[in-house]
Design brief:
This protein has about 400 residues and is mostly helical. Helix content is about 45%, strand content about 10%. The strands form six sheets. Strands 3-7-10 form a three-stranded antiparallel sheet, covered by helices on one side. Strands 4-14-11 form a three-stranded antiparallel sheet. Strand 12 and strand 13 form a beta hairpin. Helix 4 crosses helix 11, helix 7 packs parallel to helix 17 and helix 15 packs across helix 17. The two termini are about 40 Å apart. About 0% of the residues have low confidence.
Length: about 400
């Protein structure tokens, strides 16, 4: 694609410079144009100020969640599609439920989200702490003697697939397959529709099979919990269970490993912050909130349900608005010295998990995984650094985080 000349009217969320270091671009756009726009990747609008993101996220009348993907890239019209059997057609039909509750609007969203609150409460998540701690140490055992590892691929990206897989009752050895599928759908597939479709199909087929197994042999896992749940006295529809499991697998993996990876990346370059967390372990909860603010991973999309206008900018029906929560969390109107990572920041109303009815239902799990992974890393590897800062690679677009991050100690 051609080079971006003006980020306010022609931004490219997949531009390499944007993915690697979006902060100065957000600063420029935030001051020049409250609502940026572009025709790239299907066209979209992008607010970057905290107040605007906050307001738009709460306006569910005009901004629907029916499509949360940031890029509308469709398969080529002449692409050959294999003919589907009746069973396969039935399975594909299940895909249309999306990923509730994140892709739902009220009234479905109301009960769909309520279903997830008990298993993702702070109390429920506590039972996975020791399992997560053991996993982190098992991973570190595998590379600590080498004096080097990839902090992203060997550590951060290994934790969420296994934790969410455990919650869903999946075999631990499948974590690598989950990683491949999730990257194929939510990262690489954003600009490659064939890969996105293939990855989604693989995930849905696997989940469909797991649901059939739980129907025959229920267990103590999230799938069984959903199948046993009721809405208005009736069992939760099976397609809804499928879509919700899809959400938990996809959203529960990429977002959290990106946050863990960004934290490891930051601490690799700031020995004073490592020292602070080691000497004052009680700071860990506050530090996690600051790291979430500074390196918020997720940008969601909203579908404009009817013609509207915001801050003097007409936004027609059918448009896409990118909810750039990471940019909002660097807004100097709300955060003092927003580009400084202050682990003892007192005032921190960040919206890394979103705001309004779609605020992330899995935030307690994400925080727990971040906390344990940072604690265990610093216990075992308190003094480390990036092998080569320029050799770190990042994913961006929907979820921003390091994908290749060699570190040494």
């Amino acid at each position: 694609m051609p080079e971006v000349k003006d980020w306010t009217v022609d931004y490219d969320i997949f531009d390499k410079s944007y993915v690697k270091n979006p902060f100065p671009i957000w600063d420029e756009v935030r001051e020049k144009c409250p609502i940026a726009s572009t025709d790239r990747w299907g066209g979209s609008f992008m607010p970057t100020r905290y107040e605007d993101l906050f307001n738009i996220a709460r306006d569910i009348e005009h901004y629907s969640s029916r499509n949360v993907l940031v890029a509308d890239v469709m398969p080529a019209p002449d692409q050959e599609r294999p003919e589907l059997s009746e069973d396969e057609q039935e399975l594909v039909a299940q895909y249309n439920v999306g990923a509730p509750p994140i892709t739902s609007d009220p009234p479905v969203h109301t009960w769909a989200r309520k279903l997830l609150l008990p298993p993702f409460s702070a109390t429920s998540v506590e039972k996975y702490v020791e399992e997560t701690r053991e996993l982190c140490n098992e991973l570190i055992d595998g590379f600590i003697a080498n004096g080097t590892a990839d902090g992203a691929a060997d550590y951060a990206q290994q934790i969420p697939p296994r934790v969410i897989g455990s919650m869903l009752g999946f075999p631990k050895e499948m974590s690598g397959q989950f990683t491949e599928w999730v990257r194929g759908f939510l990262e690489l597939g954003l600009t490659d529709p064939e890969m996105r479709e293939s990855s989604a199909r693989s995930i849905f087929e696997f989940l469909y099979g797991q649901i059939q197994q739980r129907k025959e042999n229920p267990g103590d896992d999230l799938i069984s919990y959903l199948l046993k749940s009721e809405v208005d006295g009736e069992p939760v529809p099976e397609p809804h269970v499928l879509g919700t499991c899809f959400l938990m697998l996809v959203a529960g993996i990429d977002t959290t490993w990106s946050s863990i990876g960004s934290a490891i990346w930051h601490l690799a370059q700031h020995p004073e912050d490592r020292k602070k967390l080691i000497e004052k372990p009680e700071l860990i909860d506050n530090a996690i909130e600051e790291l979430l603010r500074a390196y918020s991973p997720v940008t969601m999309a909203r579908y404009v349900a009817s013609d509207t206008e915001y801050a003097g900018c007409p936004i027609p029906e059918g448009s896409k608005v990118l909810m750039n929560f990471p940019a909002a969390n660097r807004d100097p109107r709300v955060f003092e010295n927003p580009d400084v990572v202050d682990l003892e920041r007192a005032k921190n109303p960040h919206i890394a998990f979103g705001v309004g009815i779609h605020r992330c239902a899995g935030s307690n799990l994400a925080r727990m995984e971040m906390k344990v992974s940072i604690q265990e890393w610093l216990k075992r590897i308190p003094d480390y650094s990036l092998a080569d800062p320029e050799n770190v690679t990042w994913a961006g677009g929907q979820v921003r985080g390091p994908r290749k991050m060699p570190v040494v100690w």
